[in-house]
Amino acid sequence: MLLTKNLITIDGPSGSGKGTITLMVAEKLGWHILDSGALYRVLGIAAQRHGIPLDQQEQITQLARNMDIQFVLNEKSGEIEPVFEGENVGLDIRTDEAGQAASQVAIIPSVRDALLARQRDFYREPGLVADGRDMGTIVFPEAPAKIFLTASAECRAERRYNQLKSKGVSANMRALLDSIKARDERDRTRSVAPLVPAEGAFVVDSSNLTIDQVMAQVIDFVVEKLPQLR
Ligand SMILES: Nc1ncnc2c1ncn2[C@@H]1O[C@H](COP(=O)(O)OP(=O)(O)O)[C@@H](O)[C@H]1O
Ligand SMILES: Nc1ccn([C@H]2C[C@H](O)[C@@H](COP(=O)(O)OP(=O)(O)O)O2)c(=O)n1
């Protein structure tokens, strides 16, 4: 008998609300989370810390294969934070520069290969919600429920601006918009695992939707696709 795994994939561009919705869905179902972007972000800053230029494909692939990274639960915030070579890099990976570095190392096909098994290993009972760019297309093509979140670039830049401000990080709206557009372009046009909705994905444009409205639509879709949750 073919067993359908309890797997939900949530893909989309930067600022589309993937992280937020992933967390809400996982909390509601009591499932685990894969924040695949965090892996690429840690790799980006790891390369910089080891002095490896971001276009050095072979050295970066080596680093991706051997990278010492763990994800630990911060009991206080309830967030899962990456620990790289023993150091908590939860804050360092959230900067705009780290996002750009992640997007640059992510275009290297052998890097994506090296991270594939690590990402698949995140699957744990009772289930997994996987957040990224290629969760539904490449990493978990067998997932029964695939979601693709999107929103206009302006909307996403404004969200990122407010998010950074609320954390006390200074930000420039124009620079953030340019950065989001550059990352969109790189993520969508790369030769391997480009950012596209998976076949059969439920596409939600959240430009004019609140987080709760998006969540309601996503849960309706998930319950339709995973009848065992009814
Ligand atoms: N539908 C929405 N309306 C308004 N703000 C949103 C919406 N979805 C997400 N946000 C906010 O936008 C910011 C970026 O969301 P996040 O989930 O981190 O996006 P992503 O993981 O896709 O980059 C967060 O501050 C989040 O609270
Ligand atoms: N599954 C993934 C996840 C992220 N990436 C790359 C491309 C993205 O621009 C960067 C950062 O991803 P991340 O999801 O952390 O970024 P956002 O929170 O959406 O801004 O990593 C990827 O190529 N594949």
TrEMBL record:
Pfam families: Cytidylate_kin. GO terms for cellular component: cytoplasm. It catalyses: dCMP + ATP = dCDP + ADP; CMP + ATP = CDP + ADP. One of its GO terms (biological process) is pyrimidine nucleotide metabolic process. ATP binds at residues 12-20. Residues 8-222 form the Cytidylate kinase domain. Belongs to the cytidylate kinase family. Type 1 subfamily. This is Cytidylate kinase. It comes from Aliikangiella marina.
